[in-house]
């Protein structure tokens, strides 16, 4: 039984006979996408963990792409009716959109077991444990036999628009060069399963010999890494033409470590 952002008004805090609960089926998985308090945030979804496993994409409260300005959202690619509906309840409706995308991407939407979304964002729950990470959505039940805790809270990030699944990687870069400068570093990953666009991994002061670590959520499961593209920019014209490179770049997959 899959709960797609179970309703908060009139249900949160009620006995289990009234609301959705893990006693309702052999396996209950939940996707929370609009769990901010109803007052003052107008959150339609329930925040407590209810199922055998509970997914909190993007923290479960505010979904990427739902903060678009009203006009662009109402006159959307999907048409005026869908755009208007998304404007009124965008976060709440993301749950079924993630679910439908999960059917097309069986290996997508890995949920990382973690104490909180802040811990997940800080990289404290990376990579997946040895039993793996459950996949949010249609294939969540593949994890049914591996659950050994009372409630399992799982966190992940999604894209702003279709296609929604993202795959998490840890990138560690050691810089090389002669002098420190300000700017940013972008990385693109290439692999046997696909390639990614450029993702920013460092911004600010860039010091040669220093090592920087970043977590990136990319739009492809790249499989075995075959190439990494390194690009840096200092945002302004420097007459001394400084040079900066990467001594080493390490890429770690969240799926298998």
TrEMBL record:
Pathway(s) this gene product operates in, as recorded in its UniProt entry: Glycerolipid metabolism; triacylglycerol degradation; Glycolipid metabolism
GO biological process, one term: lipid catabolic process
Source organism superkingdom: Eukaryota
SUPFAM superfamilies on file: alpha/beta-Hydrolases, Lipase/lipooxygenase domain (PLAT/LH2 domain)
Cellular component GO terms held in the UniProt record: extracellular space; neuron projection; zymogen granule membrane
Catalytic activity from the UniProt record: di-(9Z)-octadecenoylglycerol + H2O = (9Z-octadecenoyl)-glycerol + (9Z)-octadecenoate + H(+); 1,2-didecanoylglycerol + H2O = decanoylglycerol + decanoate + H(+); 1,2-dioctanoyl-3-O-[alpha-D-galactosyl-(1->6)-beta-D-galactosyl]-sn-glycerol + H2O = octanoyl-3-O-[alpha-D-galactosyl-(1->6)-beta-D-galactosyl]-sn-glycerol + octanoate + H(+); long chain 1,2-diacyl-3-O-[alpha-D-galactosyl-(1->6)-beta-D-galactosyl]-sn-glycerol + H2O = long chain acyl-3-O-[alpha-D-galactosyl-(1->6)-beta-D-galactosyl]-sn-glycerol + a fatty acid + H(+)
Protein name (database record): Pancreatic lipase-related protein 2
Organism name: Halcyon senegalensis
